[in-house]
Amino acid sequence: MSSLTLAARDSATMLRRNLLHVRRYPSMTLNLLLTPVVLLLLFVYVFGDVMSAGIAGGADRSAYLAYLVPGIMLLTIGGTTIGSAVSVAMDMTEGIIARFRTMAIHRGSVLVGHVAGSVLQCMMSVVVVGAVAVAIGFRATDATALEWLAAAGLLALVSLALTWVAVGMGLTSPNAEAAGNNALPLMVLPLLSSAFVPVDAMPGWFQPVARYQPFTPAIETLRGLLLGTEIGHNGWLAVAWCLALAALGYTWSKSLFNRPPK
Fold first, then answer.
1. pLDDT (tens digit per residue) in 228-262
2. Whole-angstrom Cα Rg for the chain
3. Contact predicate 44/60, CB 8 Å
4. Tens digits of per-residue pLDDT, 69-97?
5. Residue 160: which of 108, 119, 221, 217 has the closest Cα?
6. Which of 17, 106, 124, 192 has a CA positioned 20 to 30 A from the CA of residue 35?
7. What sections of the chain are H helices per DSSP?
8. CB neighbours of residue 3 within 10 Å
9. What is the reported pTM?
10. How far apart are CA 191 and CA 83, in angstroms?
11. What mean pLDDT value characterizes the chain?
């Protein structure tokens, strides 16, 4: 077997291992998934009329729901990747990685399994949150099949980029609790973006924080694909952010993983 075939086989094995962990220990996934669902319901049913009046000049909860869903989807991805950081940290501190190092397996397959498993979890979480949004009235009837495909591709790209960053955070953390804390910005940053209110409605001193960060271009691009709003330069900015974060996270994670054990 070629080295590429061996790497693919070992990566598939590690992927199955991580998916089995999710099935056997679902509490973390459910906890991370519960947060965006609760925020979605809270902002729609408690603040929806007020927020819609402030944004669009009229109390229309359905309009605010349409505005809110793309940001909640990105928030879901950020929250799900926290589980990846915790899972990697647990592997590093519980000795299984040391065992893997002694086995005849492709070294990179351990991280690839974590990343592939996390991306699948992110996409499944987005589907669940999207189903809740549809159940309470969200519709994207104007989006074409190509725009839906582009939206799915963007969500997968964001998942990949954030997962590699989360893996690096997990590798550098001394334990699972620290990994969860270190990866918390992946869930906090969407709260400081255009997910809930437009950037122009924020205080002037805060607008650069919301505008020049990875989540805002991705949210605005997703909003444009699903709702037909103006995308402008946000499309290529979102892709550039994702590629840069994926490259940074991959390089950082590989460097940390290849360090000699202490």
1. 888 989 999 999 999 999 999 999 998 988 876 65
2. 19
3. no
4. 999 999 999 999 998 898 888 888 887 87
5. 119
6. 17
7. 3-24, 27-45, 48-56, 61-93, 96-101, 109-135, 145-172, 176-182, 185-188, 207-211, 215-227, 234-257
8. 8
9. 0.90
10. 18
11. 87
